[in-house]
From TrEMBL:
Residues 1-30 are annotated as: Disordered. Residues 53-434 form the tRNA-guanine(15) transglycosylase-like domain. The keyword tRNA processing applies. The gene is tgt. Belongs to the queuine tRNA-ribosyltransferase family. GO terms for biological process: tRNA queuosine(34) biosynthetic process. Substrate binds at residues 130-134, 209, 259, 286. Residues 338-342 are annotated as: RNA binding. GO terms for molecular function: metal ion binding; tRNA-guanosine(34) queuine transglycosylase activity. NCBIfam families: Q_tRNA_tgt, tgt_general. The active site is at residues 130, 333. It comes from the Bacteria. Homodimer. Within each dimer, one monomer is responsible for RNA recognition and catalysis, while the other monomer binds to the replacement base PreQ1. This is Queuine tRNA-ribosyltransferase.
Length: 441
């Protein structure tokens, strides 16, 4: 007997929430619902102690995300060395992929034909794509993906890492860049990024923005914020056009990105510009010094309607996560757990350590005592150490599973602490323990 589902090609395309044949995606399938607001801080600092931190539920066509939430990064539609079903088992609620990488390989048309990013990578849940702007512009400056950067005394609009060729150039309309894969010349703009992201089909997309570094001059930052605003307007218009045109697809939410580096007036100005446009949420992006990362979130929240979810792009460290949650961040992506794990750096509640240290060669205990991740319940430090030294792929898998679990669980615990009314105590205890031995990360 023939399965009718296999004979009708239209059934190969799933129709998630808010998608109906012949109709544009239903925007009401996306939205944010606040559950618990963080009470005012007892010390009355900042805005009279008022805080933007909250728990909530982010509804998307492919499912709900309970926030605050950690967003694992599956750059090329894959978490390196770990299958999506394992990520789900470890508690991951959503994944973020990169539009630029997917544009280069396999090409956005392949994802469109597959029925979108989630279906393509067999991930049964919400997905994000970043706009590609970061990767494209990184080709220009050659800097690393860190949100908080410690640079003092360096100012230049033409900064470029030692030994790197400048591969990207910004003009009013967009960015021209050389492909790092094969050296061919490409162009990204607001419209091109929207076209690519619509075809990739993630639930949440980001507007194409210009990323600057803390080394750019104040004057350049001002010009860049205005350019990002003009690009944001074009992104909204193109997004609306594509939503109306691409029938039968689920609604894709679009977040505007607030830049402005570490200048309070520029961040506030950029936030007001982004708030004035018809975005579904906001991305807090760009280079921010660690000491003002929480304040930066709060300045942006000052301008934003409460109903708009807030994503902090490329968060770097445990203390940064607490500062951003407290000041209104709902979702956070970070490549550090996977990247560090592959190098043997293991995150635990007692800080970060390297499992490749000689003392662990015959340590048959888990990576972290008391951790209930798959790695810790089945494998030992000595084994992971051996695999990583032997460059065995399973070593990357096991270390990544533990580190991703650590961050997923950290955000789950933070969420519980806000709902339970003990966020401040939980933050103080967690940070004191994590940094007790001077740990990085
Ligand atoms: Zn573990």
């Amino acid at each position: 007997m023939t399965n009718p589902e296999h004979t009708n090609p239209t059934n190969l395309v799933e129709h998630p929430r808010g998608a109906a044949p012949g109709k544009p995606g239903d925007r009401s399938a996306f939205g944010f619902e606040t559950i618990t607001r963080l009470p005012d801080a007892a010390d009355g600092k900042g805005r009279g102690g008022a805080r933007y931190g909250r728990t909530g539920i982010l509804h998307t066509p492919h499912g709900d995300i309970h926030t605050p939430a950690f967003v694992p990064v599956a750059t090329q539609a894959a978490m390196k060395a770990v299958l999506p079903e394992t990520m789900r088992a470890e508690g991951a609620q959503c994944m973020l992929s990169n539009a630029f990488h997917l544009y280069e390989r396999p090409g956005e048309d392949v994802l469109d034909a597959a029925g979108g990013l989630a279906k393509f990578m067999n991930w049964d849940g919400p997905t994000f794509t970043d706009s590609g702007g970061f990767q494209v512009l990184s080709l220009g400056a050659g800097f690393k993906k860190t949100l908080a950067m410690d640079v003092t005394g360096m100012k230049s609009d033409d900064v470029i890492a030692d030994g790197k060729e400048r591969l990207a150039f910004v003009d009013e309309d967009g960015v021209t860049f050389k492909s790092p894969l094969n050296g061919s010349l490409h162009r990204f703009s607001a419209e091109i990024s929207m076209g690519i992201q619509h075809k990739i089909g993630a639930d949440i997309m980001f507007a194409f923005d210009e990323l600057t570094t803390l080394m750019n001059t104040r004057r350049y930052q001002e010009q860049s914020v205005e350019r990002t605003y003009r690009w944001a307007q074009r992104c909204v218009a193109e997004h609306q056009r594509l939503t109306a045109e691409r029938l039968g697809k689920p609604y894709q939410a679009l977040y505007g990105v607030v830049q402005g580096a570490n200048y309070e007036d520029l961040r506030r100005h950029a936030a007001e510009q982004i708030a004035s446009l018809d975005f579904d949420g906001v991305g807090i992006g760009g280079a921010i010094e660690k000491r003002i990362i929480g304040d930066t979130c709060a300045w942006i929240c000052d301008a934003m309607p409460e109903s708009r979810p807030r994503h902090v792009l490329g968060i770097a460290a445990v203390d940064d996560i607490f500062a951003c949650v407290e000041n209104g961040g709902d979702t956070f992506d970070c490549v550090a757990p996977a990247r560090c794990g592959r190098n043997g750096a293991i995150f635990t509640r007692d800080g970060r350590y390297n499992v490749k240290r000689a003392e662990f060669k015959t340590d048959f205990g888990p990576l972290e005592e008391g951790c209930d991740c798959y790695t810790c319940t089945h494998y030992s430090k000595a084994y992971v150490d051996h695999l990583l030294r032997a460059r065995e792929f399973n070593g990357f898998t096991l270390a990544t599973i533990h580190n991703e679990h650590f961050f997923i669980k950290l955000l789950d615990d933070i969420r519980e602490s806000i709902d339970g009314g003990y966020f401040d105590e939980f933050r103080d205890a967690t940070l004191a323990r994590f940094y007790a031995h001077g740990s990085r990360g």
